[in-house]
Amino acid sequence: MFTAARLIAALCLAGFGYLGSEYVKTLMPQSTAFGIFTYVNTVLGFLCGWIIVGPRAGRGTAAAVSHGITGAVALILWALLGQAANEMVRLALRHRYHSPLEALAAVFEIAVEFGAVLLDPGFFLLMAVGAVVTGLLSETAARHWR
After folding, report:
1. What is d(CA 57, CA 22) in angstroms, rounded to the nearest whole number?
2. Which residues have C-beta within 8 Å of that of residue 61, sequence separation ≥ 6?
């Protein structure tokens, strides 16, 4: 069901997905080709806000912050797995893996490598602020627009 809380949460997490993607680009080497990295993470942010944070809005301020954190963590995990799967496919097309099971295991290895890049205080601060803002704005939308 379409609600204002879902829309606000989706737009907030999409925005922070975009900002987080742009921040991660500064942490990577200059020669990295990102392709549609930012757009994929923005869409994932929108979906996490719509599916995870938005429906849970309206349960109080403390719950709103908690739901915002849950949405931001889900966004980070889905983005890591999505980008790792994309990298695995790129490497598989270059015949890097001998079996499908090896390729599947590589998704998680690549996700851990990409996750190590995210261990940056600035990224943590950006996502923490994004989580709190998303939760509080979706809570406000749920209270004012029913």
Report:
1. 28
2. 136, 139
Tell me the two tokens of residue 117. 């890049």
d(CA 142, CA 137): 9
Q: Which tens digits make up the pLDDT trace of 75-123?
A: 999 999 999 999 999 999 999 999 999 999 999 999 999 999 999 999 9
Cα–Cα distances in angstroms (integers) from residue 25 to residues 17, 65, 104, 109, in the given order: 12, 27, 25, 20
Residue type, 68: G
Sequence-distant (≥ 6) Cβ neighbours of residue 30 within 8 angstroms: none
57/88 Cα distance (integer angstroms): 36
* pTM of the complete model: 0.91
